[in-house]
Structure formats: C-alpha cells, structure tokens
Amino acid sequence: MTQAAVNPEKLLSELRELWVSLGENETDSGGVLRACSMTLVVAAEDEEDARKASETLAELMPEHPSRAVVLRFDAGHDDTLEARVFAQCWMPFGRRQQICCEQIEITAGTGQMSSVPGLVLSIAAPDLPVVLWYRGPRWMSPETAAGLFPIAGKVVVDSAASPHPEGALRILDGFRASRIRIADLAWTRLTGWRETVARIYASPEERHRCAAVETIRMEYRGEVPSTGAWYLAAWMRSAFPNAVTHLEASPANRNRILISGRACQEVSIESPDGVSAEVRVDGRSFHTMFSPDSEKQLMHEELSVLTADEVFEAVLPAAAAMAVEGRS
Amino acid sequence: MLLAMAQAETLADASRHPLEDPLRFHRRVPPCAVVIFGANGDLTKRKLVPALYRLAYERRLPAAFAIIGNSRTEMTDEQFREKMRESVEKYLENSPFDAGLWESFARELYYVPGDLGDPKMYQALSAKLSEIESAEQIEGNALFYLSTQPSYYAPTIEQIGAAGLNRGKGWRRLVVEKPFGHDFRSAAELDQSIHKVFPESEVYRIDHYLGKETVQNILAFRFGNGIFEPLWNRRYVNNVQITAAESIGVEGRGAYYQEAGALRDMIQNHLLQVMATIAMEPPATFESNGVRDERSKLLRAIRIWKPEEVGKNSVAGQYGPARVGGAAVPGFRQESGVHPKAQTDTYAAVTFFVENWRWAGVPFYVRSGKRLAKRVTDIAIQFNEAPHLLFNNDGGVRPNLLIVRIQPEEGISLRFLSKRPGSGMQLRPVSMDFNYGSSFGERSPSAYETLLVDAMVGDATLYTRQDMVEASWRAVQPILNHWGQRTFDYPNYAAGSWGPAEADEMLARRGHVWRRP
Fold it and tell me: What is the ipTM of this complex?
C-alpha cells in the first residue's frame, strides 16, 4: 500500500462503518457503548512490540477508553505506509452492553516517517487530549522528538533500560526545557517508594525532623545507578536537605533505603520483589504494598496524570545534574 | 558514591514540600486508632474491617495504626484476628486477599471484650489505648465507631465521656451510624447526649449514600461544568423525581423494618440528602462546612406540610403477595417476624417543595419502596417542554429529561428529541448516555472506604451535621404524625409492581406522571 492509500478521511470513514456494523450485530444484547477519553498514540519498535503494546492497550481500555493509534516501524520496507482500523470490545461483568474502543494500526517504513505526524493529527479524536507513549529507545533520537512529540499533550517514555542513564536524563531534561510535557515510567515506578517515605514523615513533627536526617544510604541493584535511582536520590535530597546521600550498588543485589541521624528515627525500606516492601522505623516493622510493576499499571498511573506534574518537573533537572555530578 | 550537597536548582524552591505529591499520593491519614463498638456485628464484618483492610492494601493507612474491637463476646486478640480474617476473605470486593499484608494488618488488631454498660470495660479500653499509644505512637488520635444497635448509642457515649476517653493528647472523634433517632424529638435527644461528650466538630454521622461515588459525582457534574447550572432552576426545570426502588423484600429484617418503614429508613435520611445534593446552591469553596452549609440551607427550605396537606402530598404503601417471574412472593405481612396486621409503610412517596428563589413551585417527587418492579436508584430532572411545537413528534410531547443514575449502573443520561431518518420531519426521543463504569473502568472505593478515610483525615464534607438531621426530621415529621393516626387498608400494591395507585394520583393532581425507570 502506498502513502496515497492511507487517506485519513477514509480511515475515519472506516471507523464510522465499524461502529455501524458493531451496532447492527449487537442490537439484541443491549447494543454497544462507545467510550473515548483521549487519543493514545503508541509508538512500537517492531511487530512483536506492537503485539505486546496491543495487549497492554486492551488492559488499559476499560480504565482509559481511548482512540488508540499503534504505530509500527517497519525498518525493512522504506516506503511502507499502511493502516487498518478495528475495535477492542469487552463485556463488563454483569452487564448486557458491550463497550468498545477503536484502534488504528499504522505501519510505517523509514522513508515514510515524516508523513506519520500529519496522519496521526488528522485521525486524532477531536477535542480530547493526545498522549504519546514511546516504547523502546527511539525517543532518544532528535528526529523522533521533532516529528511526533509536538502532536502530543503528554509524552510517556521509559528510560529504565537505558544503558547510559546520565545521557537519558540529559535528553529528558532537554525535552522538559523545551516545554514538552514528558513523563518517564522509571519515575512512575518510584511512587510506592516515595509514598512510603512520605508517610513516615507525614506528621508535622516528623516533617520538622527531616532537617535532622544526616545520612541517606540508597542501595540499588546492578552495577551502575539507573535513571530511577537518580530520580529517587534527587527527590530524597530535596526532602532531606541536610543529609549526605550515598548511592551504592547493593552487595545483596536489592533495592534499599536507609535513613538515619542522631536526632531522628532510623528508617529502613526494602523491597525484595518491587511489589511490596518491608519497612522498619526505629525497630518497628510493617509490610506495605506497592502497585504492581506492570506496564498496564504504570501507564494507568501516567494516563491519570494529564496535568503538569510539578514534582517530576522539579526532580528531572536535579536528577540529571546529580547524574553528571556522580559520574565525575 | 558520595553525592555532594551543593545543588544550584533544588526542589525546595517549589512552594509545596517535596514529600507532598497530590497528583500521585493519596490523602494522608494521620496515625490513629479506630475503636469499633459492636465489633462482632454484621456491619463490622461485612463493611468496616474489609474497608480498612482494603485501605491498607492501597497504602492509605499510616504505619502507626490500630483497630480495637469491642463486643460482649469473650475473645482474645488472636481469636478476633482470626474472625476478622474470615470476614475479610469472605466480604472483600473486587480485591485480592494478600496473606503477607494481612499478617501485618492483623498485628494492629486488638480486642477488648465487655458490656457497653459496664464502666470496667471502658477502663480496660482506656488501658489498651494507652498501651497502643506508647507501642504504636498513634499520637493520641482515636476514632470511636458506634456500630451497635441504636438504643446503645446514648449510654455508650455517656460511658466514653465518664471514662475520659473523649479527651486525649490528639483528636477524639465519634462516628454514628444512622438512624439518628426515630423522630424529631428522639434525634434531638440523641444530639444532646452526643454533645455532652463530643463537640459537633468531632461528630461524624454516616449516611453511606453520601459516600457513593455517583452521589459525589453530582457535585462534580453540577459545579465542575458550566453548561448545566444555568438550567438548574424553576425557569427550566418542571419537576424532579427521586426514586430508590428495591426489587427484594425485607430479607430477614422484618422485625427491624416493621418499626422503621420506608419513610424513616430511606426518605428521611438517604433520599433527602440526595435531594439536598441535587438542589443545593453552589458552595463558595469545596470545604467541609461550605458544602454542608448549603445542604443544610436546602433542607431547611423544604416546605413543612400542614396536617391537612399531608394526605394529598404523601402516599404510604405496603406490598401484598404476588407472583413475580413465575415465583410466588409473600406479602410484607407474611414475612418472617412481621406482625400479621402491621401498619408499616414498605413504600413511601412524598411531594416536597423547596421554598427559595431557585426552586419555588417545582415539585420534588421522592419515592422509595420494597418489592417494586426493579432495583434502581436515580434522580430524573424533567425540563419544561419547548414553548412552541414546530414538529409533529409522533410519540407525543416528550420533554427533555436528565437522569442521574446512582445504582445499579451509575451514569448520566440526557433524553432529547431527534429527527427520524427519512423524508418528513418526524421526531423521536433518543438517549445520550454517559456510563460511569465504562468511562472509568477502575475500581471505585466503597462508600465505607471513602467515609472512613474522611473521618480519619477530619473531612466531614460527606457526613451529615446535626442541623441537617433536624431539618430532614422536621420535613418528614408531619407525615409520620399523620400516618400514625391512620389505619391503612394494607396491602395496597402487589409485589413486583411500581407501587400503589394513590402514588400515581398524587402526581396526576399536578399534571405529572411517574417515570418508569
């Protein structure tokens, strides 16, 4: 199929026909309910990644009904530009009415990448936010940012697997500085950790004692601190401004935070599995749950935050600076 | 790797403390103990402890937290924990049970056996609170939850006061379940008992309807959007119908229900609160007393019927036996525990008027009943007809209708007229639906999760206040008085129907008809 074959008007017309046919098929069972709260554009790396993305989308749709656009890069065929429409439907438990969301799949070769932003813009659901979820590492290339990022009100990436955390943080901070509303799933993964720390220091007395914290020791898995470790270190430093922060590889290959000071309580938070944590505060211990570290759960959190995320936007430059500082 | 402290750009520049992240963190519940009187009862087992466990699952509870249960049954802490575990596993809704979390949660469960009238029990409770205070650092905060029979409310509160449990290093709050009295006078007496021990600011009267997501959504719908409020008045609204219908009967609660009836059990509290939410003026701020002041003002503006007006503006009903769906269904008087000549209203319908500028002349028809045609709770706002009919709408006059559905399928529908496809100009009504469940598929917290967090946080927005309770009793008291003096010829509606014919006549007198939800 050539570029001319992917006509946005035709795609929208196919979507309309799809809804008509869904409605015709379901007249006896209460009909189909159409739901849409945003356009969610998912940029997948390849066919396999697009398949995985579609599975996550199916899980996300009940909570964030969207017009989903899945972009698949086809490195093998330079001139490829294809598109198809279909519906994701589900029957909520105990209800008679099917709920459906529409999905458009676009396959683009390298030579057609420049056509994609315009195509996506013309098929986005009117008057609703556009969120771009960039899977894989392509978001780090300047061409990508120049093309697809401006069409979205929010861009979600995942820097966790980046082999160069310092470079990734620098690029992300560059996006922030150029007013792209960027979100990083490496930051999203920290919500459970951050909330646990915040709860320990929630009362006015404990909040006051933050100033008395002298040492923060953060142990991370792996050989070098990930972007997540830098984010957490930057956030901890802002919360405990007088503490010296040690960021070090864990000999036991575990993620752990130790907070101490002469005039404050000793705190240890350790998560062996990323799903729950054992917390010790001055010898007392309790168990707390983190949200599951699944793509669906992480994206659910990010799609729930469509306004400016001031905390992240403040942490990002601090983390980028600390990563440079730490490397040197 | 040692990280130096010098940092040009610090987060401390932000106006909010870095440990606060309202976009992603839940509201903070302060360290506290929840003391449940009636801990062996159904409400505790089915609702309260499962809701608290779920809050722990969601990381909503503080590290320093404890639950102390009390009832007459002799039990150790361990036995109480085991009992609560069984309840949580059985009644936890839409959530997985996590054994590891339970272990941590259960460590904070304690039990103090004893009679509510026995001062020694309160001394033991006080000792337990002190012990937990030093072990758990709950900062002296305690929430006393009355999950007992209403007749125990006043004596329990008195004993709490006598034992000095209403005072401590931190806050001390009281949660009271409805019913708040069985008439205006008893409600006032209960308030007197409460206020001898707790100030009104520390009293949380639970009406779980107000904790429902969709009832809260009424506030979002009305005051978060600009397009509806201009229509929300007597110039555009013709009448409002509030329906809370149940298809089931009294389900083993015959003895209790016989004394209560639909007017007391539903309309005086739940439905008048819903009516207040749908009709109140916009509060200046979404702050506890701001919202409650407006609800209270609305309730106080309800016209009080004179004795001679009650008959035309209220209808009592009681269901009789019938066959529903091929099965024989007993009448109310045939239910277990019910007197064979009971005069209980299993159905009540009332016409209310709100005497203010916004609503003058607009009837609010409120009805509730058991064994009606279907289970549904909704609010229908019927708008005035178009002033001049240009088109031949073959279905007759169909005014616009805005329906706020509370259960079973929460959502909002707008009915309007649309041209039928084809030549000619024939109109037919269509419905535009917003379905809460499909637009937000995520799990909604139960009403008790919402309300328990609110009480612990100190947010009374969704709780009823003394003046609201009194105002709603004042609105229904003349009806109760009138009905109390009559002998009704019950049953007057068949199970599975939409209630007695008199209810239709009540609306017909003003040229209206009940919707069939």
Answer: 0.78
Both tokens of residue B329? 């269904």
State the residue for tokens 């309580």. Answer: A265
The side-by-side arrangement of strands in the sheet containing A255-260 is A284-289, A276-281, A267-271, A255-260, A215-220, A244-249, B2-3
Judge contact between B468 and B276, C-beta under 8 A: yes
Average pLDDT for chain B: 89
Torsions phi, psi for B461 (to 5 deg)? -55, -40
Q: Please, is B491 exposed, middle or buried when counting C-beta atoms within 10 Å of its C-beta (0-12, 13-18, 19+)? A: buried
Cβ contact, residue pair A65, B439, below 8 Å? yes
Is it the case that residue B438 has pLDDT exceeding 70? no
CB contacts of B421 in chain A (<8 Å) are none
Mean pLDDT of B78-92: 95
Q: Could you write out the three-class secondary structure of B239-299? A: EEEEEEECCCCCCCCHHHHHHHHHHHHHHHHHHHHHHHHHHCCCCCCCCHHHHHHHHHHHH
Query: How many CB atoms are closer than 10 A to CB A51?
Result: 12
Residues 6+ apart with CB under 8 A from A137: A161, A162
Can you say whether residue B38 is alpha, beta or left, with left for phi > 0 and alpha for psi between -120 and 50 degrees? Answer: left
Tell me how far apart the alpha carbons of residues A235 and B19 are, in angstroms, rounded to a whole number. Answer: 8
Chain A: closest CA distance from residue B393 (Å): 24
Sign of the CA dihedral running A174, A179, A180, A183: positive
Closest of A315, A214, A193, A196 to residue A264, by C-alpha: A214
Residue A150 preceded by cis peptide, ω within 30: no
Please report residues of A whose CB lies closer than 8 A to that of B139: 203
The counts of H helices and E strands in chain A are 11, 14
The pLDDT tens digits of the residues spanning A134-178 come to 998 888 887 777 788 888 999 999 999 888 999 999 999 999 999
3-state SS assignment for residue B500 = coil
* Amino acid identity, position B219: L
B contacts of A173 (beta carbons < 8 Å): none
DSSP characters over A234-298: HHHHHHSTTPEEEEEE-TTS-EEEEEE-TTS--EEEEESSSSEEEEEETTEEEEEEPPP--HHHH
B357 touches chain A (CB under 8 A): no
Q: How many CB pairs under 8 A join A and B?
A: 152
Best CA proximity match to B59, nearest among A197, A258, A294, A59? A197
